Amino acid sequence: MRRKETKKVIFENIKVLDAGAKGVSVAKAPEGQVIFIPNVVPGDVVDVQTFKKRKAYYEGKAIKFHELSEHRVEPVCQHFGVCGGCKWQNMNYSQQLFYKNQEVYNNLKRIGKIPLPDFEPILGSEKQFFYRNKMEFGFSDSRWLTNEEIASGESFQKNALGFHIPKMWDKILDIEKCHLQEDPSNEIRNAIRDFATEKGMTFFNARNHAGLLRTLMMRTASTGEIMVLIQFFEDDKANRELLLDFVYEKFPQITSLQYVINSKANDTLYDQNIILYKGRDYILEEMEGLHFSINAKSFYQTNSDQAYELYKISREFAGLTGNELVYDLYTGTGTIAQFVSKQAKKVIGVEAVPEAIADAKENAKRNNITNCEFYVGDMKNVFNEEFIKTHGHPDVIITDPPRDGMHKDVVEQIMKIAPEKVVYVSCNSATQARDLALMDEKYSVTRVRPVDMFPQTHHVENVVLLEKRIAN
Ligand SMILES: C[S@@+](CC[C@H](N)C(=O)[O-])C[C@H]1O[C@@H](n2cnc3c(N)ncnc32)[C@H](O)[C@@H]1O
């Protein structure tokens, strides 16, 4: 170990041991402290320079590679390592799946502390790139320059349309090609950036809160339909129409062209009035003959192909025969509810966002589904004795909560009404494990199958089947 004047520590010849949380790998210092290191792969042997020390761990970066892991692959993306996304692009896909599976297993074991069956094999995504149906990019007049660009001595233009640099709220990395959303996503983004720059339109400055152009959101669907939404900070009709007309003429395949004028401090779209410029205000997604309309604010699983696989697994776990009353908690736009409806007597969906429930009802009508009902409300308030009395005692509950998991009152209510089966779909196996532990008194976990919806990232979805224990 050498010490530098800066008091930063360099550890030499450190073997990277594990792929840890948030896509950052884990190693151990000679005295046993954990070191978190980004952009390395388990199996690499590196010299690490630390830049942060906490009581229990260091954060550091690899400054020299002695050995490269056999699990390394060449990242396909030119922005890898600078852009905050796709942190696992340097690790082969089977190894990514191995670590995702391990994360779910460790969470269920260590947090859940419950008996577990053998896991069914994690389901990988056939598409490992270009799998996302929704992307959001930020405009900035403070483009992030990479070390190579600075070293080149060339001058670069300042406008950027791309992603925030991690932990840099005011800097945006200009993206030339992103491997997450299929074309024409890259073409549309680059054309907008170039046209706007050529016409002298101003890009947002996050420090001064100024500039015409703020964000760009694009949605694509397996039906080929495309939604483009541009968020403007300033209300400049002439430039707005110049840009929107350009986009529509250049990309006539766009199904829905919309915009927002948002001069608030934050750029979230959810409380904004979205204005339709051309086409219709939604796009259609298709799954097993069902059509789902998706508007600018709708939640829809971001990997459509894997959402289909996830739903098939959930439906299989539910083991429906056609006679069951099913509750679909956290139903979003009612996709799971409608997906299982043919195999159930009736499905009741509950969701907090009124627009999502309006979509769910509209979609059910579009799909000629008559045995699904949808209700709005916060689950912890709506899902009570009265609700069960009115809508009936469920035989099966499918629950797909947000990352925080289920509110404890919701878990309690499930325990009280104790349906035969609960299918628990989760994007965060740590909170899922906590909830499973709360249900352990009455339920056995009988099936577990992780599903990868997000290749090149550490995120993983998990489906669990809970079956009621037979009372002695
Ligand atoms: C992971 S999404 C699942 C959506 C849906 N099952 C699907 O596959 O598209 C979680 C959903 O829970 C909703 N939600 C979040 N908190 C909620 C709450 N407290 N009560 C009811 N719904 C909530 C969100 O709006 C979101 O639609």
UniProtKB/TrEMBL annotation:
Domain called TRAM: residue spans: 3-64
Matches recorded under InterPro entries: MeTrfase_TrmA_AS, MeTrfase_TrmA_CS, NA-bd_OB-fold, SAM-dependent_MTases_sf, TRAM_dom, U5_MeTrfase_fam
GO BP term, example: rRNA base methylation
The protein's Enzyme Commission number: 2.1.1.190
Active site: 427
Alphabetized CDD domains for the sequence: AdoMet_MTases
One MF annotation (Gene Ontology) recorded for this entry: rRNA (uridine-C5-)-methyltransferase activity
Pfam families: tRNA_U5-meth_tr (PF05958)
Binding-site residues, S-adenosyl-L-methionine: 301, 330, 351, 400
Signal peptide: none
Keywords, in A-Z order: Methyltransferase, S-adenosyl-L-methionine, Transferase
Family: Belongs to the class I-like SAM-binding methyltransferase superfamily. RNA M5U methyltransferase family.
Name recorded for this polypeptide: 23S rRNA (Uracil(1939)-C(5))-methyltransferase RlmD
